[in-house]
Design goal:
single chain, mainly alpha, 5 helices, 0% strand
């Protein structure tokens, strides 16, 4: 336990407002709910590639939504964690 203490407690280096978000699973539960809801509408998939396309599209959509509308962690506090102090949003998929 002594050898792994630093790895287990590394999240304590993050800003306080980020720590509370790491303990919640709301985001993951929402994504899983969306995947289930949309796959239930389709019912039977013709092949595995169709499932991967659906889930991939949902994850891209969710990523875009969180990057622009509901910043999960603010860019300002994320910048404080980086080495160069600059954080930019990723390119949005069209």
């Amino acid at each position: 336990m002594d050898e792994t203490e630093r790895g287990v407690l590394v999240y304590l280096d993050d800003p306080r407002e980020h720590r509370t978000r790491r303990h919640k699973t709301n985001t993951l539960e929402r994504v899983n709910g969306d995947v289930k809801r949309r796959s239930d509408v389709i019912g039977i998939f013709p092949n595995e590639a169709a499932i991967i396309r659906l889930v991939g599209a949902l994850l891209l959509e969710q990523n875009d939504e969180w990057a622009i509308q509901r910043r999960y962690m603010s860019l300002e506090t994320l910048a404080a964690l980086g080495e160069n102090g600059e954080v930019r949003l990723p390119a949005i998929a069209n």
